[in-house]
Amino acid sequence: MNNVEEYYNCQYDEWGRLERHRIEYEITKKVLKEYIKDNSEVLDIGGGPGRYSIFLAQNGHRVTLVDLSETLVEQAKKHAAETGVVIQKFVRGNVLELETLLPNRSFDVVLCMGPLYHLLKENERKEAINQCLKLLKPGGVLIASFISAFAPIIECMLAYPQEIKKHKNRLLKYFSDGCNKKEFGFTDAYFIDPENIESLFSDFPIMTMRIMATEGLGNMRESSLMQLPEEDFMEWIDLLYEMSDKKAVLGSCAHLLYVGRKID
Predict the structure, then answer these.
(1) pLDDT digits (tens, 9 = 90+) for 95-115
(2) What is the pTM (predicted TM-score) of this model?
Protein backbone atom coordinates (compact mmCIF):
# COMPACT_ATOMS: atom_id res chain seq x y z
CA MET A 1 0.00 0.00 0.00
CA ASN A 2 1.53 3.34 -1.02
CA ASN A 3 1.36 6.57 1.00
CA VAL A 4 -1.59 8.01 -0.94
CA GLU A 5 -3.68 4.87 -0.65
CA GLU A 6 -2.91 4.58 3.07
CA TYR A 7 -3.82 8.22 3.67
CA TYR A 8 -7.27 7.95 2.11
CA ASN A 9 -7.93 4.50 3.51
CA CYS A 10 -7.11 5.41 7.09
CA GLN A 11 -6.78 9.11 7.83
CA TYR A 12 -8.92 11.52 5.84
CA ASP A 13 -12.62 12.39 5.69
CA GLU A 14 -12.87 13.12 1.97
CA TRP A 15 -16.69 13.14 2.01
CA GLY A 16 -16.77 15.84 4.68
CA ARG A 17 -14.10 17.98 3.01
CA LEU A 18 -16.51 19.35 0.45
CA GLU A 19 -18.98 20.25 3.18
CA ARG A 20 -16.23 22.29 4.85
CA HIS A 21 -15.18 23.79 1.49
CA ARG A 22 -18.46 24.50 -0.26
CA ILE A 23 -17.04 27.15 -2.58
CA GLU A 24 -14.92 24.55 -4.36
CA TYR A 25 -17.84 22.12 -4.44
CA GLU A 26 -20.42 24.57 -5.81
CA ILE A 27 -18.11 26.04 -8.45
CA THR A 28 -17.04 22.58 -9.60
CA LYS A 29 -20.69 21.57 -9.96
CA LYS A 30 -21.25 24.63 -12.14
CA VAL A 31 -18.35 23.51 -14.34
CA LEU A 32 -19.85 20.04 -14.68
CA LYS A 33 -23.23 21.50 -15.61
CA GLU A 34 -21.72 23.82 -18.21
CA TYR A 35 -19.40 21.40 -20.00
CA ILE A 36 -21.13 18.01 -19.77
CA LYS A 37 -23.90 17.39 -22.31
CA ASP A 38 -27.13 15.71 -21.30
CA ASN A 39 -27.16 11.92 -20.90
CA SER A 40 -23.38 11.51 -21.06
CA GLU A 41 -21.25 8.50 -20.25
CA VAL A 42 -18.87 9.77 -17.57
CA LEU A 43 -15.72 8.25 -16.06
CA ASP A 44 -14.93 9.71 -12.64
CA ILE A 45 -11.29 8.83 -11.86
CA GLY A 46 -10.26 9.57 -8.31
CA GLY A 47 -13.96 9.86 -7.56
CA GLY A 48 -13.35 9.10 -3.89
CA PRO A 49 -16.52 8.72 -1.81
CA GLY A 50 -18.67 9.72 -4.76
CA ARG A 51 -19.65 13.36 -4.29
CA TYR A 52 -19.47 14.26 -7.98
CA SER A 53 -20.46 10.81 -9.28
CA ILE A 54 -23.69 11.01 -7.28
CA PHE A 55 -24.34 14.59 -8.42
CA LEU A 56 -23.87 13.56 -12.06
CA ALA A 57 -26.06 10.46 -11.70
CA GLN A 58 -28.77 12.63 -10.17
CA ASN A 59 -28.56 14.77 -13.31
CA GLY A 60 -29.15 11.87 -15.67
CA HIS A 61 -25.60 10.81 -16.55
CA ARG A 62 -24.26 7.26 -16.58
CA VAL A 63 -21.23 7.22 -14.29
CA THR A 64 -18.36 4.83 -13.66
CA LEU A 65 -16.28 5.60 -10.56
CA VAL A 66 -12.62 4.62 -10.16
CA ASP A 67 -10.52 5.25 -7.06
CA LEU A 68 -7.23 3.99 -5.64
CA SER A 69 -8.64 3.69 -2.12
CA GLU A 70 -10.72 0.63 -1.30
CA THR A 71 -12.19 2.51 1.68
CA LEU A 72 -13.39 5.38 -0.49
CA VAL A 73 -14.88 3.04 -3.10
CA GLU A 74 -16.88 1.34 -0.36
CA GLN A 75 -17.97 4.75 0.95
CA ALA A 76 -19.09 5.71 -2.57
CA LYS A 77 -21.23 2.58 -2.81
CA LYS A 78 -22.78 3.39 0.57
CA HIS A 79 -23.49 7.04 -0.23
CA ALA A 80 -24.94 6.17 -3.65
CA ALA A 81 -27.29 3.63 -2.05
CA GLU A 82 -28.34 6.13 0.62
CA THR A 83 -29.01 8.76 -2.03
CA GLY A 84 -30.94 6.31 -4.20
CA VAL A 85 -28.91 6.79 -7.38
CA VAL A 86 -27.39 4.19 -9.66
CA ILE A 87 -23.66 4.30 -10.39
CA GLN A 88 -22.94 2.02 -13.34
CA LYS A 89 -19.73 0.55 -11.96
CA PHE A 90 -17.36 0.97 -9.01
CA VAL A 91 -13.70 0.10 -9.64
CA ARG A 92 -10.80 0.10 -7.21
CA GLY A 93 -7.64 0.86 -9.17
CA ASN A 94 -4.86 3.15 -10.32
CA VAL A 95 -5.21 5.85 -12.98
CA LEU A 96 -2.02 4.53 -14.59
CA GLU A 97 -3.80 1.24 -15.35
CA LEU A 98 -7.09 2.48 -16.80
CA GLU A 99 -6.83 0.52 -20.05
CA THR A 100 -6.48 -2.69 -18.06
CA LEU A 101 -9.19 -1.79 -15.56
CA LEU A 102 -11.75 -0.80 -18.20
CA PRO A 103 -10.93 -2.68 -21.42
CA ASN A 104 -12.83 -1.72 -24.56
CA ARG A 105 -14.62 1.17 -22.84
CA SER A 106 -14.99 4.75 -24.01
CA PHE A 107 -16.59 7.78 -22.41
CA ASP A 108 -18.04 11.15 -23.41
CA VAL A 109 -16.43 12.80 -20.38
CA VAL A 110 -13.48 11.87 -18.19
CA LEU A 111 -13.00 13.49 -14.80
CA CYS A 112 -9.50 13.26 -13.37
CA MET A 113 -10.08 15.26 -10.22
CA GLY A 114 -7.46 14.00 -7.82
CA PRO A 115 -4.87 11.68 -9.38
CA LEU A 116 -2.75 14.36 -11.07
CA TYR A 117 -1.90 16.01 -7.75
CA HIS A 118 -0.80 12.74 -6.16
CA LEU A 119 1.74 11.74 -8.82
CA LEU A 120 5.16 13.18 -7.98
CA LYS A 121 6.90 12.34 -11.26
CA GLU A 122 6.15 14.25 -14.46
CA ASN A 123 6.27 11.10 -16.58
CA GLU A 124 3.57 9.57 -14.36
CA ARG A 125 1.38 12.68 -14.62
CA LYS A 126 1.72 12.55 -18.40
CA GLU A 127 0.93 8.84 -18.47
CA ALA A 128 -2.18 9.51 -16.38
CA ILE A 129 -3.31 12.07 -18.98
CA ASN A 130 -2.51 9.57 -21.74
CA GLN A 131 -4.61 6.89 -20.03
CA CYS A 132 -7.52 9.32 -19.62
CA LEU A 133 -7.43 10.34 -23.26
CA LYS A 134 -7.31 6.73 -24.46
CA LEU A 135 -10.71 6.18 -22.84
CA LEU A 136 -12.13 9.53 -23.94
CA LYS A 137 -14.12 9.65 -27.17
CA PRO A 138 -13.02 12.07 -29.91
CA GLY A 139 -14.61 15.41 -29.13
CA GLY A 140 -15.07 14.37 -25.51
CA VAL A 141 -14.32 16.56 -22.51
CA LEU A 142 -11.53 16.05 -19.97
CA ILE A 143 -11.84 17.86 -16.63
CA ALA A 144 -8.75 17.63 -14.42
CA SER A 145 -8.00 19.12 -11.03
CA PHE A 146 -4.77 20.41 -9.53
CA ILE A 147 -3.53 21.74 -6.22
CA SER A 148 -1.79 25.06 -6.68
CA ALA A 149 1.72 25.79 -5.45
CA PHE A 150 0.08 28.78 -3.77
CA ALA A 151 -2.03 26.43 -1.61
CA PRO A 152 0.61 25.78 1.09
CA ILE A 153 1.26 29.52 1.36
CA ILE A 154 -2.45 30.19 1.83
CA GLU A 155 -2.66 27.41 4.44
CA CYS A 156 0.30 28.82 6.35
CA MET A 157 -1.17 32.32 6.24
CA LEU A 158 -4.52 31.09 7.57
CA ALA A 159 -3.43 28.45 10.08
CA TYR A 160 0.04 29.27 11.40
CA PRO A 161 1.27 32.65 10.10
CA GLN A 162 3.56 33.10 13.10
CA GLU A 163 5.71 30.20 11.79
CA ILE A 164 6.66 31.81 8.48
CA LYS A 165 10.41 31.82 9.26
CA LYS A 166 10.29 28.07 9.78
CA HIS A 167 8.38 27.35 6.58
CA LYS A 168 9.37 30.09 4.09
CA ASN A 169 12.00 28.07 2.19
CA ARG A 170 9.71 25.05 1.95
CA LEU A 171 6.86 27.19 0.64
CA LEU A 172 9.01 28.74 -2.06
CA LYS A 173 10.43 25.33 -3.03
CA TYR A 174 7.06 24.20 -4.34
CA PHE A 175 7.41 26.63 -7.25
CA SER A 176 10.55 24.83 -8.41
CA ASP A 177 9.75 21.14 -7.91
CA GLY A 178 6.19 21.03 -6.56
CA CYS A 179 6.83 17.90 -4.51
CA ASN A 180 5.37 17.32 -1.07
CA LYS A 181 6.56 13.96 0.28
CA LYS A 182 4.11 12.95 3.05
CA GLU A 183 4.65 16.19 4.97
CA PHE A 184 2.67 18.51 7.23
CA GLY A 185 -0.47 16.43 7.70
CA PHE A 186 -0.85 15.60 4.01
CA THR A 187 0.30 12.70 1.87
CA ASP A 188 2.49 12.59 -1.26
CA ALA A 189 1.37 15.45 -3.47
CA TYR A 190 2.41 17.61 -6.39
CA PHE A 191 1.62 21.32 -6.16
CA ILE A 192 1.67 22.97 -9.57
CA ASP A 193 2.52 26.53 -10.55
CA PRO A 194 -0.69 27.65 -12.32
CA GLU A 195 1.41 28.98 -15.20
CA ASN A 196 2.51 25.41 -16.01
CA ILE A 197 -0.89 23.74 -16.31
CA GLU A 198 -1.49 24.32 -20.02
CA SER A 199 2.00 23.19 -21.01
CA LEU A 200 1.42 19.84 -19.25
CA PHE A 201 -1.18 19.06 -21.91
CA SER A 202 0.75 20.43 -24.87
CA ASP A 203 1.95 17.03 -26.12
CA PHE A 204 -1.55 15.57 -26.26
CA PRO A 205 -4.42 15.80 -28.77
CA ILE A 206 -6.49 18.12 -26.63
CA MET A 207 -7.66 21.71 -26.97
CA THR A 208 -7.68 23.81 -23.82
CA MET A 209 -11.11 25.31 -23.17
CA ARG A 210 -10.67 26.75 -19.69
CA ILE A 211 -8.25 26.90 -16.75
CA MET A 212 -9.87 28.20 -13.63
CA ALA A 213 -9.73 28.68 -9.87
CA THR A 214 -12.32 26.77 -7.87
CA GLU A 215 -12.28 29.06 -4.85
CA GLY A 216 -10.86 32.24 -6.32
CA LEU A 217 -10.89 35.32 -4.16
CA GLY A 218 -13.32 33.56 -1.84
CA ASN A 219 -10.53 31.34 -0.56
CA MET A 220 -9.44 33.69 2.22
CA ARG A 221 -13.02 34.48 3.37
CA GLU A 222 -14.65 31.09 2.95
CA SER A 223 -15.83 30.64 6.54
CA SER A 224 -17.48 34.07 6.51
CA LEU A 225 -19.16 33.49 3.17
CA MET A 226 -20.51 30.13 4.31
CA GLN A 227 -22.26 31.83 7.24
CA LEU A 228 -24.33 34.00 4.91
CA PRO A 229 -27.94 33.18 4.05
CA GLU A 230 -28.01 30.61 1.24
CA GLU A 231 -29.26 33.09 -1.35
CA ASP A 232 -26.39 35.48 -0.64
CA PHE A 233 -23.85 32.66 -0.58
CA MET A 234 -24.96 31.48 -4.02
CA GLU A 235 -24.71 35.04 -5.36
CA TRP A 236 -21.05 34.97 -4.31
CA ILE A 237 -20.65 31.60 -6.05
CA ASP A 238 -21.97 33.13 -9.27
CA LEU A 239 -19.59 36.09 -8.99
CA LEU A 240 -16.57 33.89 -8.20
CA TYR A 241 -17.45 31.59 -11.10
CA GLU A 242 -17.56 34.48 -13.57
CA MET A 243 -14.09 35.59 -12.42
CA SER A 244 -12.62 32.09 -12.07
CA ASP A 245 -10.58 31.98 -15.28
CA LYS A 246 -8.94 35.38 -14.99
CA LYS A 247 -5.19 34.86 -14.81
CA ALA A 248 -4.86 37.31 -11.94
CA VAL A 249 -7.16 35.10 -9.85
CA LEU A 250 -5.37 31.77 -10.42
CA GLY A 251 -2.81 32.49 -7.70
CA SER A 252 -5.44 33.30 -5.10
CA CYS A 253 -6.69 29.83 -4.23
CA ALA A 254 -5.72 26.24 -3.51
CA HIS A 255 -7.51 24.25 -6.20
CA LEU A 256 -7.56 24.63 -9.97
CA LEU A 257 -9.47 23.00 -12.81
CA TYR A 258 -8.45 22.32 -16.39
CA VAL A 259 -11.16 21.78 -19.01
CA GLY A 260 -10.17 20.50 -22.44
CA ARG A 261 -11.73 18.87 -25.49
CA LYS A 262 -10.12 15.89 -27.19
CA ILE A 263 -9.30 16.72 -30.79
CA ASP A 264 -11.14 14.53 -33.32
Answers:
(1) 999 999 999 999 999 999 999
(2) 0.95
